[in-house]
Amino acid sequence: VPHVRPQAAIVLAEAGEEEVRDMLFYEMRVRPSRPLLEALSFIANEDVVIRLGQFARQNPNWCEIVIAVLEVIDHPKARKVAASLIA
């Protein structure tokens, strides 16, 4: 069900289910939202960090929120990507 899918993906990500990464990114392309971005922080890996940076560069109006999400991700590359978005 299209309107339930994003919420289900968010809940699964918050529970640590890494398999929903692609679904979250799909939903970000269709209907971006802050909760979807924040959910990615629960299951972030290097690929997520890179894709968040790409998303922010392609969608500058989301840059500030992406930076906030990157700042809570515990991955060395997250800080570098966040810094590159500020500059």
Structure characteristics:
single chain; 87 residues; mainly alpha; 70% helix; globular
Structure description:
The model has no long low-confidence stretch (mean pLDDT 95). Helices cover 70% and strands 0% of the residues. With 87 residues, the protein is an all-alpha fold. Helix 1 (5-14) packs parallel to helix 3 (34-40), helix 4 (46-58) runs antiparallel to helix 5 (63-72) and helix 4 packs parallel to helix 6.
| Percent in helix | over 70%
| Percent in strands | under 5%
What sequence of helices (H) and strands (E) makes up the elements? HHHHHH
Distance between the termini: 40 Å
* Low-pLDDT stretches: none
Helix-strand category: mainly alpha
